[in-house]
Amino acid sequence: MKKTFYSLLLLIAFSLLIANRADAKIKLPGIFGDNMVLQQQAQDKLWGWAGANAMVNVTTGWDHKAYHTKADAQGNWKITVSAPKAGGPYQIAFNDGSPLTLKNVMIGEVWFCSGQSNMEMALRGNSSPILNAAEIILNADNPQLRLCTFHTANSLTPLTDVQAQWNESTSETARNFSAIAYQFGAILQKKLHVPVGLIVSSVGGTMIESWMSKGSLAAFPEVKVPPTILDTVKQPWKLPTALFNGMVAPVLGFNVKGIIWYQGESNRHEPQLYGRLFPVMVADWRKQWGLGDIPFYYVQIAPFGSTDKTRSGPLLREAQLKGMDAIPNSGMASTMDVGMEKFIHYMNKTLPAQRLAYWALGKTYGIKGINYLAPAYKSMEVSGDKITVTFNNAPYLTTYEKPSLTLFEVAGADKVFHPAKATIKANQVVLQSDKVSAPIAVRYAFKEYVMAELYNNDGIPASSFRTDNWDDVR
Fold it and tell me: Which GO molecular function annotations are given, in alphabetical order (predicted)?
């Protein structure tokens, strides 16, 4: 009996030893895997877990250089490798006594793509279809384009890992990937002739506060950061900090070229607060990423709905328009011509993807000949009952042969706006209304749902805007 007892103890001890050795095997977070892309010509960080105080050896296939580091007492380790110019595929070998090899790794350009449902919406569509999706999916086979989507993760404390998988772009993998991110990346890959990696971290129906860290929200007492328990919360992804902690914090060390962002619909009823939160979020992400003022390009929410009389939509678009002045190295893609009155998930995801790509290719990569700037209000001059509005970024303005401009309004000292007759003269629009003898303010497309009428010759539509700052915008 005693012999059997000691044999059982030895068996348990041996099993625990085997389990501990198994647990000590090198482990990588979800952001690292076969088929991934690392940022070219950069110092790229790799990290993970191993046995306590274990020696970790990493060998990079592009130069066969060996790197060594020691895990800490908890098994955490991190190492920095030098990535060459774009190329691949390569392997990366890890060893702490047990080998692990990542295969089919590319070196190229990496972009982080985040936001809510219009970023999340896959090429396959949902209750709303994606325009030309069948053709886009048909032509999606491209081993130089790599796709990674994070699973939704909510936390009120920063996590260290995400559930994700990298895939080569094929008709099957692209079908389930973000329509905007995919088309953005496909344009970059075709123009740059290098591998492109896209990381999508997005959740529908979320407010910007969910994507912000606790520290960045400290200056906003009106935003209540919840305690650290999510057990009883039905929609935890809507809580402030929950998605930053779950879907941004775990990958802050991963080197990226830039960020594209599409979010704002859920904040449309608090446009003033959004205008204050947005630049703080971007500054905090950049600081925590540690890559300086990396490019941050975002999509303006599209016109939608006509029953809301608060003008929350145009006010949120206004806050986003002003974001370009508040956020260094940023740019906004206008969507004034793709919105749908009854569907917030509009079909045409191609135009915003193209306009994001124009920003990246023209501004970040410096390719000549690509205009990414929309017509933007510069100044106005009053002469009698006429106002002449001058625009930047448009040597010539156009309606694309639409017979007349119908979205301009003017107001006098009574602050009552009336439709104005509008005449284009090169980069100016001359406005006049029989009901306003002494105009002092102008608005363009300042309504919930409109379709763009004013473009520059590159086909980029002007954002809705106003020259007044009156609190009552009705």
Answer: sialate O-acetylesterase activity
